[in-house]
Description:
The structure is a homodimer. Chain A is α/β, with parallel strands linked by helices. Helix content of chain A is 40%, strand content 18%. Chain A has two domains: 7-134, Four Helix Bundle (Hemerythrin (Met), subunit A); 143-329, Rossmann fold (3-Layer(aba) Sandwich). The first copy, chain A, contains ten helices and 16 strands. Chain A is globular, with a radius of gyration of 20 Å. Strand 6 of chain A pairs parallel with strand 13 (305-306) of chain B.
Amino acid sequence: MEPIPTLRWVDGSLRLLDQRLLPDEERYVDCSRVEELVRAIKTLTVRGAPAIGIAAAYGAVIAAMTADDDGSFPDRVSADLDALESTRPTAVNLFICIRRQREILQRAEGKDEAVELLLEQANRFLEEDLESSRAMGRFGADLLEPDSVLLTHCNAGGLATAGLGTALAVIYEASDRGWVSQVYVDETRPLLQGARLTAWELCRAGVPVRVLPDSAAPSLLRSGTVDAVLVGADRVAVNGDVANKIGTYTLALAAMKAEVPFYVVAPLSSFDPETQDGGGIEIEHRGREELELLGDRKVLPDRAEVYNPAFDVTPSDMVTALITERGILK
Amino acid sequence: MEPIPTLRWVDGSLRLLDQRLLPDEERYVDCSRVEELVRAIKTLTVRGAPAIGIAAAYGAVIAAMTADDDGSFPDRVSADLDALESTRPTAVNLFICIRRQREILQRAEGKDEAVELLLEQANRFLEEDLESSRAMGRFGADLLEPDSVLLTHCNAGGLATAGLGTALAVIYEASDRGWVSQVYVDETRPLLQGARLTAWELCRAGVPVRVLPDSAAPSLLRSGTVDAVLVGADRVAVNGDVANKIGTYTLALAAMKAEVPFYVVAPLSSFDPETQDGGGIEIEHRGREELELLGDRKVLPDRAEVYNPAFDVTPSDMVTALITERGILK
């Protein structure tokens, strides 16, 4: 499986595959100013916990490149890092990557060295991410069997990372082994990352895909059709509770009832040593417009309010195993 | 609460509130030919198990009115009843209403008497439906308490019946008593009957509404915010298993886990004495186009298949109580 060029450093700027236009159009946008990248993260041009972290690390490079080389340099770059850090509240990778870049910034002497060291670190994040996807893929596939029917949610794929994914890295590896007979993909309302992104990725890799409404997954699990559920994570707490795309808890509950294994695939960078359990994870709530419009058509009465959390928390006792790049945690 | 004129016999034809255009537009269509009504039922211009049954009963009147008054009369009308009966496979009310009209057709002497008796029966179905909604509303509201936060799915409202609904009849009665502080409504993919229809109905009645993605309901239930779940039913089997809009099983499972009461509100006409349990209920699968397009925009890769069941089955042991027009079944 060839990695997807989700985000790449090209000629002094960060090139992002615009995920809002998929699957219709494969268009790339170049960010050479921090404000552009901040907007790209907030509007989900780039999304997925690991990809956001790496993008923000490159954002630090852009911040250093565009700041004046005078006494204000550290403060200017630091203010840009604050802006990048406040784009999305739930994924922990963002905070970890920004923290590392802050440390590098503090010990760099002058602008040129800062740019060089920040870029080295951002490239390292990207390389490590690809390596860790390959490792998660191997560990995860070892838990599966030939002829597997799998279910996944949202996009925990190459598009959510540097190019190979978390949950989808396992599916890619299992598919390379010839073990995948069918993958069911929740469409994942409201932004349809499953239908638009995961189905696109898996079709591109030649994996047989069937997309379903989120609400159809529990009865599908009850029917005994599915052999395993594989999802990613935006943050894993110390006790093993998992924050991930809204609807993940639903799948965990239905999988537990149907006695189907429920696997969370996440690199160690998604584990947050400062969050004791799921109760401590801030859940981002998103806007009314995501539910109000279907294309151009208004599908919500004006007087109706919305409840639109982007994530939910799955308690650790519902997770069969956590698949990391270092091995399996049960 | 004033009934919604979901379907009414006006000047020799059946007037339907076109549910595909809500909440944007309140437009009515008149059906005076059986083919028009068959299409209206198939395309969900009119929908909801009780409303489909009543519409089909009026369809029998239209069939009799438009058939030639000669020896072919019974066969012509009977063929039209076959067409009406085969529009949707899951709701039992349709079959019951058509069966009753067939009996009337057999004992009527000549076209004029057939038209008169069929119309009387169709009107009776409509009146009985309104009465039974009022009764379900009272029995159901008696199970609730002041300051209730309620959750519902799809549209089990006036738009799914002759005008007052099943699950929503309970909410309307509880609201009249001043007991409803908030109603959460699943948007209900793929056709968004919750966002488009239920939110429209409840806003019209002055009930506070909050619409959420289907996938957000289980974590909402887990949070302890909701006091009761109320849904309708397309068919209830002899053992109490319930077929209803896809996603109903999800709510039952999450409600059970969260120890929140899960009520199914259905008239006795939705109980099928010929279906022993949920395994015997045929589940309708709907088309690719419902998942493929978001407005005009294609959101699914060409090579991806879809899995789009319209209903699921909730086992009876997950149902706290069945609320009927004759009382409560536990």
